[in-house]
Amino acid sequence: MTDNGTSPGSRRALLLAAGSLSVAALAAGCARPAAAPPGGATPGCVLAVKAGAGPNYSGPGRTRSDVTDGRAGVPLRLELTVVRASAGCRPLAGAAVDIWQADAAGVYSEGRETFLRGVQVTDGSGRCVFRTIVPGWYAGLAPHIHFTVRPDPRSETTSQFFFPEDFLREVYAREPYARRKAPRSPNAHDDRYRAAAGTMTLAPAAEGGGYRAAYTVGIA
Fold first, then answer.
1. Which candidate, 10, 26, 30, places its Cα nearest to that of 18?
2. How much is the pLDDT for 14?
3. 82 pairs with which residues across the strands?
4. Section 139-156 average pLDDT
C-alpha cells in the first residue's frame, strides 16, 4: 500500500505565536525538556511537524499499551510525553494518543485485525507508554510510526516518528527483517522525512533484547 500525506510545505514545523509573547520568548520557554527517561527524548519542547494520516489509518484503535498482538519483530518501548507548547510546555493529562504502524514485513493490519494499533490516555504527567516493535519498510518510504494526539474531541495533531538510518540498518540485519533485502538508505527518498528535518526522529537506546525511545510531543 502507498502512504500519501499532504505536501511537504503543509507539513513544515510550526512557529508558535501566543498572546503578547514573542516567538523567541516562547521558544525559550519551551527549551525546558519535559521529564523523560534516557533513551531518545528529543531535547526541549518541540512542536510536532504535522503530517497526513495516510490510507492505512482505520480510526482509533483499542485502548491498550501492548499493541504487538504477537507480531514478530525487535521490541520497542515507546515512551511519550505530551505537552501544551502554548502553555509553557505544561504536561497535558487526559489526551488520547493513537499509534499505528507496519509490521516487520511492511504490512498494516486490516479489517478485523488490530496488530500494531492502539490508544493510550496520558496520565497526570502527560505520559503514556506503548510496547510495540520496530516497523519494517514498504513502498520506498522511510520506516515510521504514525500517531495522533487528541487533547479533546474537537482537535487533533497527526504526525509520525522516524528512525536514524544507522539504527535501521542494524535492526534490519536481524530476524525477521533480514528475510527481505533492506534498502541501503531507508530514509533517503522520503520527502516527509526531509520535511521534518530531524525533528520527528527518535533516538532509541538498547534495552534488553530490544530498544527504548522517549519523546516529548508538543502540540499548539
1. 26
2. 34
3. 217
4. 94
- CA 106 to chain centroid: 16
Residue with cell 474537537: 154
Cα first-last separation, the chain: 31
The side-by-side arrangement of strands in the sheet containing 96-101 is 117-121, 96-101, 145-152, 155-161
211: CATH: 2.60.130.10
In this prediction, residue 70 has a pLDDT band, given cuts at 50, 70 and 90, of very high
Q: Is a pLDDT exceeding 60 seen at residue 84?
A: yes
**pTM, full prediction:** 0.81
Residue 2 lies in a domain: no
Domain count, the chain: 1
Which residues pair with residue 152 across a beta bridge?
155
pLDDT in the model for residue 44 = 59
Q: 133 CB contacts (<8 Å, ≥6 apart)?
A: 68, 71, 72, 73, 74, 75, 76, 103, 104, 116, 210
